[in-house]
Amino acid sequence: MQKGKFEWIMSAVQMPKQLQTLDDLLAQAEHYANYSMQNSGCVPPTLFLIGADGPAMFIPENLADDGAKDDFATTARLVCIAHAATATVMTLEAWMKAATPGEKLDMTEPPSESFDRREVVVLLGESRAGQKQKFLPIIRSGNGKFFGFGESDVPGMDKMEGRFAQIISPKVPDAEMRLLAQTMLKVKGVKVAQSGKSPRLPRGRR
Question: What span, in angstroms and rounded, lies between the C-alpha atoms of 114 and 160?
């Protein structure tokens, strides 16, 4: 990763203070994904949230393996408790495959190894009222550079499952729970960017 690349992107894409609903947060995450793709050709995994002190966002150091992915999911849940989140959006690049019309989807084959795989940015939104998802198919030019997002034909799911699902605690965290989560995040050295401030990127992205 070119030094300073993401710092420039993140300084330009700031979290507006007026975000109030899950739909607002999904729109902000899509804007962020488009801006990142246009300027760097990829989107860093990012958690967006609306909390007691307004919107915030968190970027992990990496998602290099399953252990790092599990750590991101665990840290994201702590961040949500610490900030008393009411809505979240996980923004992730992923490979996706769909079943051929009339055929059953082969669940034994990883999407990354599928012949007809599709490169997408996935927006996984949650609030205590329900879940919403959006899939943004990535279109690249012949030279591999990002051209834009296509229209998604993937229907939303009623219930998401997996390590990046159920990020928000079912119960509203009280002051004691928030303080405990804040302490744990401090010990882990986690930095969360608040509304109107540019996120500080992890050392691995500098």
Answer: 22
> What's the rounded Cα separation, in Å, for the pair 128 and 87?
7
Between CA 89 and CA 64 the distance in angstroms is 21
Beta carbons within 10 angstroms of residue 66's beta carbon: 9
Q: Which two tokens stand for residue 9?
A: 């992107």
DSSP-based three-state secondary structure for 164: coil
| Domain carrying residue 25 | 5-205
Angle of helix 22-40 relative to helix 5-12, nearest 10 degrees, comes to 140
What are the tens digits of pLDDT across the range 163-200? Answer: 888 899 889 999 999 999 999 999 999 988 876 554 44
The stretch 144-150 carries a mean pLDDT of 89
What type of residue sits at position 199? P
CA distance 119 to 93: 8
Quickly count: other Cβ atoms within 10 Å of residue 38's Cβ. Answer: 13
For helices 66-82 and 175-188, give the axis angle rounded to 10 degrees.
140
User: Is 57:200 a contact under the CB 8 Å cutoff?
Assistant: no
Residue 48 has pLDDT above 50, yes or no: yes
Q: How many domains does the chain have?
A: 1
Q: Which of 13-17, 42-46, 94-98, 131-135 has the lowest mean pLDDT?
A: 13-17
Phi-psi region of 65 (alpha: psi -120 to 50; beta: other; left: phi over 0): beta
